[in-house]
Amino acid sequence: MAAAQGLLVKRYGLVDVGDGFELLRTVSQQCNVKLHTLADAVVRVPAPDADARVWFPGRRRYSPPRLPGLMLDPGSRGSQGSVLKAVLHRMLSITQTSMGNVQLMDGNRLHLARHTGLNTYFTEFFAFVDAPTTSCAQAAAEHRQITVRDVASAELFDEASRYAILQAGSRAAHSVPLTNGRGAVLGMVSSHHERPLTAFTTAQLAALQQTGTDVGRWLSWHWNTVVLDALERLHTTATRRPH
Fold first, then answer.
1. Are 226 and 56 in contact (CB under 8 A)?
2. pTM (2 decimals)?
């Protein structure tokens, strides 16, 4: 956040970082984009040309991709919050459990974006994941589904991560990468289970794989459409401010 505020001050000649934060907050609310997502985009996306009227000249916009299998109201296909809620519901329906979470890629780490059935200790401990000692991190690194049949004995966890999972009442977990059309991991959806797992059926794994691909493509659309729209709005707002 601080990096984005400082960049905006320098780029648009704002008075101070407080003005930078206010600009981010205002556009975040107007465009229904999470504040940290918008700040991350300001830092990551190449700057507009000097004195450019628009940030992305000639950019084409597309309708959101279809999400078969997800329970979505017709008017909510463009809402990230609605899609993350729906994919978590889909995950838990397929894996038959009541505990789970969705994470989104935030640079080189996973950021907890939505959860259900998991306590505060778990959600605070796993607010950001950048170490390889979790099933979600392994699934992201290997671009494939990972099943942890018994958290208590699985070798991939460090002891702090193992404790955080067990104390939440989870003895097993399954993680599914959310991948775009080029195979890049944009997020992760995971289920947690009260008892050790045996195995999922081929049909279950295929349904989870398809869901991960569908939602990953949607996340790619959201970044390239909704988030870039927000950057465009930010640029327009900043260049019209009196100096």
1. no
2. 0.89
